[in-house]
Write a structure and sequence with these properties.
Oligomer: single chain
CATH architecture: 3-Layer(aba) Sandwich
Strand order of the largest sheet: 10-6-5-4-1-2-3-13
Structural class: alpha/beta
Radius of gyration: 20 Å
CATH topology: Rossmann fold
Strand content: 15-25%
Number of domains: 1
Length: about 350
């Protein structure tokens, strides 16, 4: 595919996917529609060729904007990342999560359906979701497969589950050629500093406290973002419409194990008198905190030939090095400068 419309492409996974797509498709072009809320950072793509990547600041719930973007750009696919995604924020106020993740997805689906009627049978709508829609696993349970019943436990997860159901319904009811992916926790370059790995990494570099929820034994499967982008490209080019593909990194560990591993990497690169593990502080657990996630990714391996190429320790070391080498990127987020300097984009109007 040469032309794609990406929603939420100024965020962590979206910006990495755009880089991957443009690197792999020398004639490729991307129209990037992003509302640029707090987690959207145009600086993550500021080095891209403006002839091949255009960023429009706009809302996916703005039907007129979405319809005009499709009509004028004529994409061969929509890759839908745009979402409010921070669980703690959803617990404080779920309103933005419902509006963007559910209603915004419905607007995209309606607009895509009308566009598809003239776009041709090769058009695809790829909806990027999360393993959190499945709820929590017991310690000895097998990983989530694509037939697992949904059981979301946070407002964020519930809003993503609602979006997943809408996408499936637009395929079943109208025939829209959709693809759904549910991935495990991502990590890597350009991740917003409120997420676990960059938060702990930056706090360790700055000598600040490393707050760990509860006993720190919550278990997650970790996926390097470049592997996720490879998987999404494979789903887009060869996935079967109407199909769900779970994407995991085969790297399951507890939060506390992860933070200790991160501290070891920081200590190697920034030696001090004491290990940064001394900064770990246990804090009150958050409400409804899922105990364990794990992904069964056999379908995408079997049907599409994808598997992760970067093991966890290699990927985490790359991530630490990237944040060390790109201090200005995250320091501008920490001090708020990135929000006041929105350059190189066209505002929707």
């Amino acid at each position: 595919m040469a032309r794609i419309l990406v929603t939420g492409g100024a965020g962590f996974i979206g910006s990495n996917f755009i880089r991957h797509f443009l690197d792999a498709n020398r004639q490729g072009r991307v129209l990037n529609l992003d509302l640029l809320t707090y987690a959207g950072n145009p600086e993550s793509l500021s080095d891209q060729d403006p002839e091949r990547h255009e960023l429009i600041q706009g809302d996916i719930a703005d039907r007129a904007l979405v319809e005009r973007s499709l009509r004028e750009f004529q994409p061969e696919a929509i890759v839908h990342f745009a979402a409010e995604s921070h669980v703690d924020r959803s617990i404080d106020d779920a309103s933005d999560f419902v509006r963007t993740n559910v209603l915004g997805t419905q607007v995209l689906l309606d607009s895509a359906l009308e566009y598809w009627k003239s776009a041709g049978d090769d058009f695809r709508f790829l909806h990027v979701s999360t393993d959190e829609v499945y709820g929590s696993l017991e310690p000895e349970e097998p990983g989530f497969d694509e037939d697992r019943a949904y059981a979301p436990n946070s407002p964020y997860a519930a809003s993503k589950a609602g979006a997943d159901h809408l996408v499936r319904a637009w395929h079943q009811t109208y025939g829209l050629p959709v693809l759904i992916t549910n991935c495990s926790n991502n990590y890597g370059p350009f991740q917003f500093p409120e997420k676990l790995i960059p938060l702990m990494l930056i706090n360790a570099l700055e000598g600040e406290s490393l707050p760990v929820y509860g006993d720190g034994q919550q278990c997650r499967d970790w996926l390097y973002v470049e592997d996720h982008c490879r998987a999404l490209s494979r789903v887009l080019e060869a996935g079967r419409p109407g199909r769900v593909y779970n994407i995991g990194g085969d790297a399951e560990m507890t939060n506390l194990e992860l933070i200790h591993t991160l501290c070891e990497l920081v200590d190697e690169r920034q030696p001090g008198t004491e290990s940064c593990a001394k900064l770990i502080r246990h804090v009150t657990d958050r409400p409804g905190h899922d105990r364990r996630y794990a992904i069964d990714a056999r379908r995408i391996r079997r049907e599409l030939g994808w598997k992760p190429a970067v093991d966890f320790h290699q990927g985490l070391a790359r991530t630490v090095d990237w944040y060390l080498e790109n201090r200005d990127w995250w320091q501008r987020i920490r001090d708020g400068r990135y929000r006041s300097e929105r350059l190189g984009m066209r505002h929707a109007g």
